[in-house]
Amino acid sequence: MVSKDNKYLISFFLRLALASVFLYAAIASFLTPTNWTGYLPQWLKYIIPGTILLFAFSFYEIILSLWLLSGKKIYYASILSTVTLFLIIISNINNLDILFRDIAIFFSAISLAILSKKDG
Questions:
Q1: N or C terminus: which one in the chain shows less Cβ crowding within 10 Å?
Q2: Are 54 and 40 in contact (CB under 8 A)?
């Protein structure tokens, strides 16, 4: 059984890990958008221009990062992180040389959801 102090510490490090990934990607995409537009689903870029889509997604990632860092309603933030990472993985499945990291991060998001299920 994990003590309450250890559970908080585990949650903190998982939240920090997830938030840093989303925050890095958002900031990097603002600084060098051409490096990131290729990861957006092609079919979606036909509907919404890539630069607008990337800006919106980066803004979403920043909000998600701040939510994770806030420590509020972590179960829901972790579920949203899990879904986001799942969609990133599915959308880029042909890029496994880069994607393998996202698979590990995806399982970290699932772990955080399980850990924070009671807390909400």
A1: N
A2: yes
73 alpha-carbon distance from chain centroid:
16
Q: Using one digit for the tens of pLDDT, what is the confidence trace for 52-94?
A: 999 999 999 999 999 999 999 999 999 999 999 999 999 989 8
C-alpha 65/C-alpha 76 separation (Å) is 13
What's the chain's Rg over C-alpha atoms? 15
Give 41's pLDDT tier (boundaries 50, 70, 90). Answer: confident
What is the number of domains present in the chain?
A: 1
Assigned domain for 120 exists: no
Q: Is residue 14 part of a domain?
A: yes
**Average pLDDT of the segment spanning 1-22:** 91
Question: Helix count (H) and strand count (E) of the chain?
Answer: 5, 0
